[in-house]
Design a protein that fits this description.
By secondary structure, the protein is α/β, with parallel strands linked by helices. Helix content is about 35%, strand content about 20%. The two termini are about 20 Å apart.
Amino acid sequence: MVAVGGNALAPAGENPSIYDQFRYTRESLRAVVALAQQGWHIALVHGNGPQVGDALVRNELARTVVEPLPLGVLVAATAGWIGYMVQQSLQNALLLKGIPRDVITLITQTLVRRDDPRLSQPTKPIGHYLTKTEADQLTSRGVAVGEDSGGRLRRLSPSPEPLDVVESDAVKQLVNEGKIVIAAGGGGPPVYADEYQRWEGVDAVVDKDLVAAILGRCLDADILLILTDVDGVYRGWGTEEQRLIPKMNLAEADEVIAAGELGSGSMRPKVAAALQFVRGGGDRAIIADLFHGLEAIAGTTGTTIIGERT
């Protein structure tokens, strides 16, 4: 189970064109191509923070011409076009290496609770950085804005707790057939079980790493590989004493979270997802730099979280 951040496709601080994003995507999938070459069964989840933020900007600019789309629909929309971008990039890379693997994108829904209190508390940063003027303009229109883990102003979205992936059985069937499946894009559009209409969407963004952990357990995956823009989990991050933690058991990872050393919008949810995956029966979870996923699986880089009996 591989999770790749949306910033891997649209780096933070930049406003890349779609052509740039295709280029970044091709570069970011090297580890996935290497895993496919080794014969691993693979499901991939990607983020969409920058992309869904851009979609909201388009909403605002065009609101006098066309009806704005709600956030839940935009999550599904970005899952579609980012999935197409990842799918095509993987297909091309595999063809060049002579690897006969099919790649498929599925739009999957993520189950949440209708009464989750997080739905009324926008906390998850999405989109690109905002200037003070841009932030003030959004705030004046009732749009939630706040600082991310780096102290930069960004839009904020509600982020409910994910419970399940509605289409996980279909993903599992395809993965077991050897197909590489791109699913739960952007964490997947969140839905709740309605008494009458069954599935009903909500306007929120679900953390894609937590969804990857849930989907990974549904697939009986051995490894959760979270690829990000740093080379692992650090103690004392941002200080002169910072040091990489190469391996943690569950108790040690719990202690790192409890100590408050991890940013709530950055590394903390990744470690929480890793803990959830391993506690759910996964062999190990790995947090590593985007371009060194294969080395991280071999244990030579990144941070590996293991169960007590591993």
